Each structure stands twice: as structure tokens, then as C-alpha cells.
Amino acid sequence: MREPPVVGVVFGYLYSAVNYALALIYVIVLTRYIPPLTQYGYYNTLMAMIGMIGLFFPTLGVDAAIAREGAMLHSRGLGIDDHYAALLTISLTVSTLYATALIIAIPLYLVSRMPSEYMGLVFIYAAYVAIAGINGALSAYLWMMGRLASQGIGGIVGNIVFRGIEIALLVLLRSVYAIVIGMVIGQLVTLIYYLAIVKRLVNQVGGALH
């Protein structure tokens, strides 16, 4: 059963509002409890390098095309299991390759004079990439099924957890590790939520077919 589109729109805007509000709190906390500027500078440099590596692992819009076609099929009452499987395969493949490349590139970071104590960030971020890839596929499945409100709630819950953990750890640790740890935990919570919703939908569809 599709959720009313207006509900999905409301939760979409609510997600943006929550994101901006938490980001404002984050900036205030960061300003007061900011890690040493040198540490923050290394963090931003490392994230920039990680982002550049990510350019070599695009989906080329294939996942978006699959999601659109799946949504059209679902609107006609047809099954989309193959599309869901394709999305998961693409997301898992790309995110796994990207996460692996980030770890393999550690010597590159060190050659670029990045202190070794920041290499732990790479492993944590690699975990974030892998989990986010799965969440992307699950989110697309909810979109194809017309579950826009459920999709939006997942984003809101994950973002609240992410920012909450991030802010708390910044105050306690005063370390840039707080940022990446918060990102991973936020994605994990989103994953648990999405898995519960998607499992229920798959069971409903399977029961209807039988």
C-alpha cells in the first residue's frame, strides 16, 4: 500500500528542517569545543582526498534508472524483486570497491604527510561507505514502493542519532574522530530501521502473491 504523497512531502521537508536545526547546534558546539585547528585541518584534507577517490566509483545513474523503472512497474501492480536485487547488487559492489580503495590508498595519505594517527579515520569512513551503500538501495526500494514517509523517517532518525552522537563525542573527546564515528552510528541506526520496514513490505508482497 502506498503512503499518501503529501505525507512523504511533509517528512521530506521535516528531514531538511531537522537537518538544519541539528547542523546549527553542531556549529555552536564545534565553535566552543573545536578540536585543535591542526587536527581539524588534517581531517578536512583527508576527507578531500577520500572524496577525490570516490570520483572513480560512480554509478553513472544506472541505479536511478532502475529505481524509476521499478516505480513504474509497481504502479502497474507488477513485481519489482529483480529491480530491488539489481539495486542491492550495484550498491554493494560500488560501495565495497570504494571502501576497499580507501584502505588500499593509506600509503598515499602517508606519503602526503598525513600523520599516521589519522589513519583510523579511513577504516571508520570505509565502514560508513559500505553501510551507506546498503541504505541507499533500501531507501530506493521504499521510494519504488511509494513509501515516501517511511523513507523520510529513516533519514530523520539516522540524522538525529548521527548529530547527537557527534555532538556528545565532540564534547567528550574533542577529537575529529567524533564526526566519523557519529556518521557510522547514524547509518547503522538507519540500516536497522530500513531493514525492518523493507522486511515487512517484502513479507506483505510475498503473502499477497500466495
Walkthrough of the structure:
- The structure is a single chain.
- This protein has 210 residues and is mainly alpha-helical.
- Helices cover 84% and strands 0% of the residues.
- It has eight helices and no strands.
- Helix 3 (62-75) packs antiparallel against helix 4 and helix 6 packs parallel to helix 8.
The biggest beta sheet is recorded as: none
Runs with pLDDT <50, length 5+? Answer: none
Q: Please compute the radius of gyration using only Cα atoms.
A: 19 Å
Question: How large is the count of helical segments?
Answer: 8
Mean pLDDT: 85
- What share of the residues does DSSP label as strand, in percent? under 5%
**Assembly state:** single chain
> What characteristic shape results from the CA principal axes?
globular
Secondary-structure element order, as H and E?
HHHHHHHH
Give the strand tally.
0
Tell me the span between the first and last alpha carbons: 17 Å
**What structural class is derived from the secondary structure elements?**
mainly alpha
Residue share in helix: over 70%
Protein topology:
Layout: H1 5-33, H2 37-54, H3 62-75, H4 81-104, H5 106-111, H6 119-144, H7 148-173, H8 177-209
Quick structural overview:
With 210 residues, the protein is mainly α.
